[in-house]
Fold each of these.
Amino acid sequence: MINIVVVSHGNLSEQLIKSAEMIAGPAEEVYAVTLQPGDKPETFSQKLDDTMAKIGDQEILILIDILCGTPYNITARQVLKEKVECITGANLPMLIEAMLSRENTSVSELAVTITGVGADSVKNLKPFLKRD
Amino acid sequence: MIPIKDWGLVRIDDRLIHGQVIAVWVKHKNFTRIQIVDDVVAADSFLVDVLHMAAPAGLDVVAESVENSVKSLLENKTPQNTMVLMKYPKTARMLYDAGITFPALNIGGMGMGPGRKNVFKNTSISSEEYQVLKSLQDDGVKITFLSVPGEKSKDFADIPAM
């Protein structure tokens, strides 16, 4: 099974995993890495390294909260590893789909799928649903 | 005599470009260019790519060594739209001595560590850094601790000597 790591400013990643469990069931092999207020970049980097070491030499999909900032700046370097893919803009639909679709696929295929899920999950509702 | 330019922001932040910088400062001041002054970052082409990828449309992110930054900054024609970003007070001192005589310096964040004293929110400095900042203040630079616009700030002049 492909491992999932969610990285974020603050506790978003931990909470996102808890919320995803309400829909997708227990989150096994899903990890959160947080940048807390006052953390130095090196502190976050160490937390990430510890988590990656714990998972070891396996396929890993990393969801990053936003396309900028310290979690992104540091985590992006993980794409240099063959078995690791990184996607920014982490949201609940992406995490749920990743948790449910990570068997019988490769991490690179999963990354393409999940990036599409993220893009499709954003809708401005009123133009579709308004009644004149 | 090199004319004093009115820089949009000259900032020390050991996280360099992070969430606060992109989400708040860039929008607040309409920056079109961020000049990162750091020998290590400039030499790390992967990190420079990562920073470029994160830059919103219309924002030019440049990372250069101190030496090359001095050249770029002296030639910069839109200082008011430029954020000059570095990690350490000593880098600010080097720029100043090379003729980038900024009138104001923002300190956005410097992390905690051994031998460092917390002086404001997420900012800690060593006595060595205090002396460097004090020398800039003595040269007429107004130094302010401020993470993001609108939040509480503190003047360097108001912290106890170290």
Amino acid sequence: MLDLDYSWLADPAYQSWLVVGVINTLKLAAISSIAATLIGMLGALALTLRIAWLDALIELFVEVFRNTPPLLQMLFAYFTLSTLGLQVTDPDTGLSMPLLSAFACAAISLSLFGGALAIEAFRSGIETMPRAIIEAGQALGYSRWARFWRIEAPIATRISLPALTNILSNLFKTTSQASVITVPELMYYAGQIYNDNFRTMEVMILVLVIYVTLVSILTYLMARLERWMAFPGYGKAAS
Amino acid sequence: MTHPEALIEIKDIHKSFGKFNVLNGIDLTVRKGEAVCIIGPSGSGKSTILRCMNGLMPIDRGTIRVGQHQVHSLKTEKAMRPLRHQVAMVFQQYNLFPHKTALENVMMAPIQVLGHDRAEVEDRARKLLDKVRLGHKADSYPGQLSGGQQQRVAIARALAMQPDVILFDEVTAALDPETVKDVLFNIRELVEEGLTCVLVTHEMGFAREVSHHVCFTDHGKIVEDAPPAEFFANPRDPRTREFLGQVL
């Protein structure tokens, strides 16, 4: 039988590790989610311009980041960005240190990874726009830009939301891989704790519960957003 | 022959999709205040004529004049905009914006495209919704309205642009017979008020009662263009006779 012992949770050192870990996980998830969403919107927007070289560039970006493991991307970001000569001198210690911290490298690589997926999500929302809607906008005299902002973008955003929810919840879980490049987030501290107290099973169960809780909150909020933005006939109708 | 009083003047327009010639030399004149019905078998180019009139579809050859606009020479969407303020269109599938309420659908373009005053536009939009007898549905989304109601909102949306002409593209084709009546009632009212209307339709009874002249299209040509009494009682072209024999 499992003989679970959680008495170590009373230790203030473990408590503070867990709290810091959760806070860093939330920070990393929030920053990369927002950046990924923005990259997705901008990328999909750029694709509507139908500029051949820009399309090719975005296509390449999406393919590279979608078709490689995020862990590899993170290691790549960590080791290349920190050795590219981007060094600053710490004003306090006088020591030379990388300009980009492990956290920054993780945030950048996760943003790009999520952004590549988000571009596809928003692109599909724009491309499934019924021809009829576009024609109606044209017939009413909307310019191409006004049509995009007033009509197509709001509809496409609503259509893309369920796909975006998937991407962001996956991105949230992928933040755990930042532990490999020493970002002190939840997974990193979990390792610290079980290396210290050997209560591997207990620590893993606790971390699992924390992730389930946090990701559930995220998907709940996204579902609320979806319902708030819904309109009858598309997705979750409010009526 | 030019018609100085003609609001729309179409001369010898041609249009093909690949090898298929949809329009094979169409001539059509619509005077101010007239209602013109275009009927004909499917694939004969009826809807294409309407789409060419407001520049939704470029033509290969010929000339189209609407008011002071030479439609065939407008190349960019920007150049089309003054034309589109003058020519409104109502579609078979209503084409309302699904993320906006009925009232917002009617108000959007006058505010966002024409830059009219919001309060004035709202007043105008509410009156137009009352006119199509949907004042009580102002806050409903298209997805909450029946097909006939959506189509009447689409008519109100077209009217809100205060156009000189409205093009109706088979606007009752997707509706069930009861709601067709309501939509036709609204269109008849507009014709009686003197608004210029060009209608592609399969409603023969409506064409006979409302229009000033009726055109019959076949294989990309207008083979008959006559006042309704003459058109229905005594068609000259054998193809018109055959078609009317099938549908009446």
